[in-house]
UniProtKB/TrEMBL annotation, chain A:
It comes from Vararia minispora EC-137. This is RNB-domain-containing protein.
TrEMBL record, chain B:
This is Ribosomal protein S5 domain 2-type protein. Keywords: Ribonucleoprotein, Ribosomal protein. It comes from the Eukaryota.
Length: 990, 339
């Protein structure tokens, strides 16, 4: 054993060795923190074959001895040592695979980045681990030669800059010291370590001290792939230019308040904090939901929206009540309204006056039309709490290219139009404009100056041609932030080494798999799933007991047996949160080996399961419930349809068919019980895409999904299992149980729908409770229009809040209720292959029945809260991605159908009226569409109707529409376009 | 304090020696000599200011001298809730280590502590001495300065030691710089008032006298520089020193050892403050002991005490400045040379 010596410093050295700082706590107390710093001499430089450092350093050095040799300015080889600002503003450049120069990353820089921006810090950490990069983290604050002490009166920034320069100087001396000239040989020229910084003062100081330093732009210009890399540079300009430009251009937006002021205002309740939501119909309007008001705070006009981008957390100031406004009834499309905005113009010449006037006219016009009755809190954005900018999928706006430069490869400024209607156009500079036309590209916003109408961004990478499946698919995943990289080696290493050959071992006392497991291999268990399902995570059985009661069991794949807490696979699954289903692709949460094989409860093979077994009375009341880990062997895997046929076939009397019948019998009673308790039967448009063949992914048609009785059978048992498990884990772990709830919606959410129904159909909607709502929804029937009821249900669903996972100790027990299911408590337990929350529930249940001990992290409320907030977000995103994918394929299908029959005409129901358009829902395709009228029409907001050519069209009216998919000329964005064919043909009105 | 019990003979012996010409003291000092004083500041890194003081500890025996440690800690207080007061406040506490008074019971030590605390608190936290930079946000937040002194051992003249240590710790105290952050709804415009708490009155200047409405402002503060210790506590030159005159009227002597204290019937404590550019100020006075002394005598005694206090104060200032230097520049130099 090596001897440990603790070299305690004398108090005398404290000033130098201790790092002192103050911290203000959330409660407003000031705490003094002291960190002791021990300096050492054995911190390695990270360069391979270094005489002095190699032996001592760990991890092993990774920088090549001569650095990079391909830069024009540094023929003798060089390493770069970037300053903090490089990572803060040019992360995309540093991450690019074209940027191959070995990087020396200083501890000072790493810490400063962490202090300034946590997301960037995480990206930086990932960059250090990237395999195609050579990055060495040098702990300069701990190496005795490079550690520095803050001078009297020095700002932290200056101190850090000095530290960075000192480290650069040390590296260069170190290189010359370790490679002394050898007699008789010609002295090889030494590589240099170059300080990379955009801070002019730092560069000047470096030059004074005689060390090589260079700005990023200069550096990139000397690189091999200069033109491609230059595009990745963010729009940060040189300070000198910026000053003059800013002074010349008029300020378009009010300045933000300083951050601390904003926080104070929020704390005192004068300002309100919330997520900014852009309005997808009107680019000049947005809203912010804040806890202080029941209705969201409305932001009208550019000045009041003040550079907020969808998803940002902003601070708003609410105007006096007299200035409150109602939301607009008009569709205002950015592309149409701003068609003539010139990129270069708005960039340099200030704002074209016509444009401003036009926008103001729109607002004024709208203003007069706003209804006084529907006023809601109105305000303006005064500060940004947190930007949530990410990379956005965009197209290049063709018109923003000047005709002469359509082919030129000189740098030019263009507009990138994001695919999402919620985002503003982004101005960016690129040299590759002509080649990027007609492509989907990824663009990041860098900044948005108060003098600039549009945010400025830079190109990240191209995804591929518009409408190519790969590009569309990837853009969808990026747009919804779905992690889709293949699983890494560390994760795959967590899988059982047997791989595909893994089987349940023979039963025996010594096998760990069989410990505390019940042998249910003889039970007649089957699974019922949608056709083509590969990840079967649930199976069922039922049989009559001798006492007349019924035993029913739900068997869920025992995923937690394979996924141990806190290993790389578990961490990855936690961050993915859920499996994402697109029409033509599934992005797994767990490696496919588990999902589709080892955990999938395939028929005829033994599988590990977690079983919930009830004893139910013939009236479906629970007599007894028990939970056990088990081994099962499914007897069959049915599709919903097969199971239905089997159940309905009176000639079949085998055990399986009887089981299904028994299950169905109970399910009907369970459902009746639920409905009686006030459960809602909600609807969302679900359609099925028909593919031409299994191999090609060309959709040929769309039809609405068929629902069988057996769908409901499986659903009822899953609900029952989830509720039983929720009770059990909440009982055992009242502080950290993973549960799911659905908060009752505030009654105001329904006001509009209630008003429409009353005025249009004379129907009343009782929203006092979920039961009352369910009953009144049942009464919303129009005998002439069967789709009407579904439509109302869809609209009611949109008025509700979304369900969420939560940690039972974090909220008060009276808010546990699941509104939609009318259950006092609920969790997710039945799909551990595709949902991470279920894995947590499995672990908690296993601990609750004493099968295993609970991992310490599941005892920590903070940890559970953190994991669940990620899962909640991923879950939401996955749903949106799925829907967007369906929409894309519906578009393709419509196009395909259109090519065959020349025109696609469908029936549609009007769901919303605007002063210049209609929003319709095509139930056969499950899509919504917007019909715009160019000509003036009479709009009656009170009665939700418009009058076109003396024909009155109101909400819930049936119309027929022609559906086309047309490509936007500018952006190549394919969009569904609808025109009215009856009762009036609107094509003339467009 | 009465930790040592002496026989009548011993008391008489001490008295006669002191009254002899030339006066004789057991350790060979003159009547008006102090024992050696050792002082070090910045001994407690987590405190905002601290000092370690020893009276007369030239020899190695730990029990020989009077030894105290003083530490000042700043704490943010809410003015609104009635906890703090505008302008900040100082709270002094003296605690005694049981080893300082090995012959006293726990209850007796508590009494002693209480006596010390009361005297120190009364003098130090007097409004005339309040530093001007203890306020953070008017009507909202202020600093509470907790001055804690621990008596490690008492070999006489504890009062002088307490005040010297208190002054050193307060001298060493740095107040973190704060910045006012304000959002005022009435004008829809937020102002950020820069600077420390001393500049707070700037805000009231900005408000017009015609504005009679109650303008609601929301304000909080933030740290200007989380690395910086802050600015020194103001009013550092006004902290008082205490001079204890041990009385055998008309004879008196300074810096009594514990045995001498027992033999002396009464003591006069005089606290003087020497604010810059102002005449010396008497901050407090106390007579300890059973005997009475007349007013004329007190007058002359305070006069003499002032001269000794001036000397003590000058010496202390010089030492404190030297300490500051030792802990900053010299330490850096040493650090640089060691590497």
């Amino acid at each position: 054993m090596s001897e440990i010596t603790i070299r305690k410093r004398s108090l005398e050295d404290a000033v130098v060795t201790q790092r002192k700082f103050f911290k203000k706590t959330a409660k407003g107390k000031i705490i003094k923190v002291i960190r002791e710093r021990y300096l050492r001499d054995d911190i390695g430089c990270g360069i391979l074959h270094c005489r002095e450092c190699s032996a001592t350093s760990s991890p092993p050095p990774c920088l090549p001895p001569d650095g990079a040799l391909d830069h024009q300015q540094f023929p003798t080889g060089h390493f770069v040592l970037p300053d903090t600002n490089v990572f803060l503003s040019q992360m995309d450049l540093m991450e690019s695979h074209l940027f191959r120069t070995p990087i020396v990353l200083l501890q000072t820089v790493l810490e400063e980045v962490r202090h300034r921006s946590l997301p960037l810090y995480n990206r930086l950490k990932a960059l250090v681990k990237m395999e195609d990069k050579q990055t060495w983290v040098f702990y300069n604050e701990f190496r005795s030669e490079t550690a520095i002490v803050r001078n009297e009166g020095e700002t932290p920034n200056d101190r850090n800059d000095r530290g960075i320069r000192k480290a650069t100087a040390w590296y260069n001396t170190h290189l010359s010291m370790t490679r002394p000239p050898i007699r008789g040989k010609q002295q090889k020229l030494l590589p240099v370590v170059v300080l990379l910084t955009d801070d002019v003062a730092n560069r000047q100081n470096a030059e004074k001290e005689g060390m090589p330093s260079v700005s990023i732009r200069q550096y990139v210009e000397g690189m091999k792939d200069a033109s491609q890399l230059a595009d990745l540079l963010s729009a940060e300009r040189d300070e000198s230019i910026e000053a003059t430009v800013a002074s010349r251009r008029p300020q378009l937006y009010p300045d933000y308040l300083p951050n601390a002021t904003v926080l104070t205002g929020i704390k005192a309740g004068h300002l309100h904090q919330g997520h900014y939501n852009a309005n997808e119909f009107n680019y000049l309007e947005g809203s912010v939901s804040v806890p202080a008001f029941a209705k969201p705070v409305l932001l009208v006009g550019r000045e009041n929206m003040n550079r907020a981008v969808h998803g940002d957390i902003v601070a708003v100031e609410v105007f006096n009540k007299t200035d409150w406004k109602a939301p607009a009834d008009e569709v205002i499309d950015q592309e149409v309204a701003l068609k003539n905005d010139d990129v270069e113009d708005s960039d340099e010449e200030g704002e074209p006056l016509g444009l401003v006037a036009e926008e103001q006219r729109i607002l004024r016009e709208e203003e007069s039309a706003r209804q006084a009755a529907e006023r809601q809190p109105t305000g303006r954005v005064v500060g940004i709490v947190k930007r949530n900018w990410r990379a956005y999928v965009c197209h290049i706006d063709r018109t923003s290219l000047t005709s002469s430069s359509k082919t030129s490869i000189s740098q030019q400024t263009v507009f990138a139009t994001p695919v999402s209607r919620l985002l503003p156009r982004i101005r960016m500079r690129t040299r590759q404009a002509p080649s990027l036309l007609g492509q989907k590209i990824l663009v990041t916003i860098d900044r948005w100056d108060s003098a600039s109408r549009y945010p400025e961004g830079h190109f990240v990478r191209a995804l591929g041609r518009v409408e190519s499946k790969e590009a569309e698919q990837e853009s969808l995943l990026l747009e919804f932030d779905v992690p889709y990289r293949p699983f890494g080696k560390a994760i795959l290493d967590c899988l059982p080494p047997e791989g595909e050959q893994w089987t349940v071992p023979l039963k025996g006392d010594d096998s760990p798999e069989w410990r505390d497991r019940e042998d249910l291999r003889d039970l007649t268990i089957c699974s019922i799933d949608p056709p083509g399902c590969q990840d079967i995570d649930d199976a069922l059985h039922a049989r009559k007991l001798l006492n007349g009661n019924i035993e029913a069991g739900v068997h869920i794949a025992d995923v937690s047996h394979f996924v141990s807490p806190e290993n790389p696979m578990d961490t990855e699954a936690a961050s993915r949160g859920t499996t994402v289903y697109l029409v033509d692709k599934r992005i797994d949460m767990l490696p496919a080996l588990l999902g589709t094989n080892l955990c999938s409860l395939r028929p005829y093979v033994e599988r590990l399961a977690f079983s919930v077994i009830w004893e139910l009375s013939p009236e479906a009341e629970i007599v007894n419930v028990r939970f056990t880990k088990s081994v099962i062997k499914s007897k069959s895997a049915f599709t919903y349809e097969e199971a239905q046929l089997r159940k309905d076939d009176p000639n079949l009397h085998d055990e399986l068919s009887e089981g299904i019948r028994l299950l169905n019998h109970i399910a009907i009673k369970l459902k009746a019980g639920r409905i009686a308790a006030g459960a809602l039967n909600l609807a969302s448009p679900e359609v099925k895409i028909h593919m031409e063949s299994a191999e090609s992914s060309d959709p040929i048609d769309v039809e609405q999904k068929q629902l069988h009785e057996t769908n409901s059978l499986v659903e009822e048992f899953m609900l029952l299992a989830n509720i039983s498990v929720a009770r059990k884990i909440q009982e055992t772990f009242p502080q950290t149980a993973v549960l799911r709830r659905h908060m009752p919606p505030p009654p105001e959410n329904f006001e509009r729908l209630q008003d429409i129904l009353r005025k249009r159909k004379g129907l009343a909607l009782d929203v006092s409770s979920s039961g009352a709502l369910a009953a009144s929804l049942d009464k919303c029937i129009d005998p002439s229009e069967p789709a009407f009821n579904t439509l109302v249900r869809i609209m009611a669903t949109r008025c509700m809040l979304s369900a969420e996972y939560f940690c039972s100790g974090s909220v008060s027990p009276d808010t546990f209720k699941h509104y939609g299911l009318a259950s006092p408590i609920y969790t997710h337990f039945t799909s551990p292959i595709r949902r991470y929350a279920d894995i947590l529930a499995h672990r908690q249940l296993a601990a609750a029945i004493g099968h295993s001990t609970l991992h310490p992290t599941l005892h920590s409320k903070q940890h559970v809260e953190r994991v669940l907030s990620v899962v909640n977000r991923r879950h939401r995103m996955a749903q949106m991605a799925g829907r967007a994918s369906v929409e894309f394929y519906v578009g393709l299908a419509v196009k395909a159908r259109g090519e065959k029959t020349a025109r696609v005409v469908e029936e549609a129901l009007v769901i919303r009226t605007f002063r210049n358009g209609l929003n319709v829902f095509v139930s056969s395709l499950g899509i919504e569409g917007l019909i715009r009228f160019k000509r003036d029409i009479d709009f009656d907001a009170e009665n939700y109707s418009v009058t076109v050519d003396d024909v009155r069209i109101a909400v819930f009216d049936k119309v027929t529409v022609r559906i086309e998919v047309e490509q936007d000329k500018n952006t190549q964005r394919g969009k569904v376009k609808m025109t009215l064919t009856s009762p009036v043909d609107s094509s003339a009105l467009q | 304090m009465a930790t040592v019990s002496l026989s009548k003979a011993e008391v008489a012996y001490i008295k006669t020696s002191l009254e002899a010409t030339p006066p004789l003291r057991s350790d060979g000092r003159g009547l008006y000599d102090y024992r050696t004083i050792a002082l070090e500041t910045g001994v407690a890194p987590l405190a905002n200011g601290s000092a370690h003081l020893k009276f007369g500890q030239a020899s190695e025996q730990a029990t020989e001298g009077t030894e105290v440690i003083a530490a000042a800690r700043l704490e943010v207080e809410d003015v609104e809730s009635g906890e703090g007061v505008n302008g900040g406040r100082i709270s002094c506490t003296v605690s005694c280590s049981p080893s300082a008074y090995p012959h006293s019971s726990a209850a007796a030590i508590e009494d002693i502590q209480h006596d010390y605390t009361a005297l120190l608190h009364e003098v130090i936290s007097h409004p005339s001495l309040r530093p001007s930079n203890l306020s953070i946000l008017r009507d909202l937040k202020s600093w509470l300065l907790n001055l804690d002194i621990l008596v490690l051992s008492d070999a006489g003249n504890i009062y002088d030691a307490l005040f010297v240590a208190a002054q050193a710790a307060l001298w060493d105290t740095k107040v973190p710089r704060t910045r006012t952050v304000e959002y005022s709804a009435a004008t829809s415009k937020a102002r950020v008032a820069l600077g420390g708490s001393g500049d707070m009155d700037v805000d009231s200047v900005e408000q017009s006298g015609f504005n009679v409405r109650d303008v609601k402002t929301a304000a909080d503060f933030e740290l200007e520089d989380y690395w910086d210790e802050g600015e020194p506590l103001r009013g550092g030159d006004a902290w008082p020193v205490c001079v204890t005159l041990n009385l055998y009227p008309p004879l008196y002597y300074l810096d009594a050892t514990s045995t001498e204290e027992v033999a002396t019937p009464s003591r006069l404590l005089v606290m003087y403050s020497f604010p810059a550019d102002q005449p010396p100020r008497l901050q407090g006075m106390r007579l300890l002991g059973p005997s009475e002394i007349g007013l004329p005598l007190i007058k002359t005694l305070t006069q003499t005490a002032q001269t000794y206090a001036t000397d003590l104060s000058c010496a202390l200032r010089a030492k404190l400045k030297d300490e500051d230097l030792r802990r900053t520049e010299k330490a850096r130099q040493r650090f640089a040379s060691v590497r």
